[in-house]
Amino acid sequence: MPETSRPVLTDLRLPSPEATAAFAARLSDRVGPGDLLCLDGDLGAGKTHFARALIQHRQAAPEDVPSPSFTLVQTYDTPDGEVWHADLYRLSDAWEVDELGLADAFDAALCLVEWPDRMAPDLPDRALWISLRMVPDDAEARDLTLSTLRPDFWAGRLAGLGAA
Ligand code: ADP
Ligand code: MG
Which residue has the higher pLDDT, 98 or 67? Predict the structure, then answer.
């Protein structure tokens, strides 16, 4: 689904990897088990960087958070419940999504999914889409857009998080 068809909640520029990590940590405080965060963007856009910062913010002692591009899914036990970090880039068949048990995880865990379009249209409307884009002539900056088909579900919870 083209991004423009989802209502936009926030649009901002993240000038450095550290700014992206700080924003991910602030978003982390607004989400929990049962939330689905779809990380959208090209290779190298910063999806894993964002997920890593968010997950480490939730860990009692920050651990290694590798990219799940080969394992497809990495799970983490945190004080506030289970976190699933998935990368669907290598997903070959729709049935593989069933095998992974992602649909059940959407209800029980906090889920972060890179390359979520691989499993569209099986994504719940309540998903929060985090779109990252490179910025021309600035290798350290990224543009970030938060959007969702359910702004009613998210707008209040994200109030004050960043420029709209
Ligand atoms: P993806 O998972 O989207 O393929 P990664 O997160 O693995 O991308 O890699 C993103 C790379 O871009 C990292 O090396 C990161 O340090 C770099 N980077 C540079 N600027 C930024 C920024 N503002 N936000 C996030 N990552 C950035
Ligand atoms: Mg990645």
Answer: 67
